[in-house]
Amino acid sequence: MTIRDKIFDKLEELNMTQKMFSEKTGIAESTISDWRKKKTNPTADKIMVICKVLDVDPEWLLSDIEPQGNRGNPKEWYAIKAETDSGKLITAFNSMDKARQARLMGYAEALLNLER
Question: Hey, how many other C-beta atoms are within 10 angstroms of the C-beta on 46?
Fold first, then answer.
């Protein structure tokens, strides 16, 4: 199933019109219509806002992987909002030099071992 197909299926599931979707995403209604008529997919810069409005993960939208609860394959990547605790942690980690990153990773691993 293409990205375009998933978007339109989800819109139908949510009983959301293309006009409503356009208003919520800020994507021109003509652009959304072109996806259907010209059988094209949205550009990469629109993926995150589409996921937010449709309340789906980028992994679901961009791949054929369906979530299977805890039985699915481990994620190889994550899309995380910067303003969440996880996002703030990643931002802080990325601002550190390699030595501090290694120290923080050691601390995190020690905490995980305490829980086991």
Answer: 17
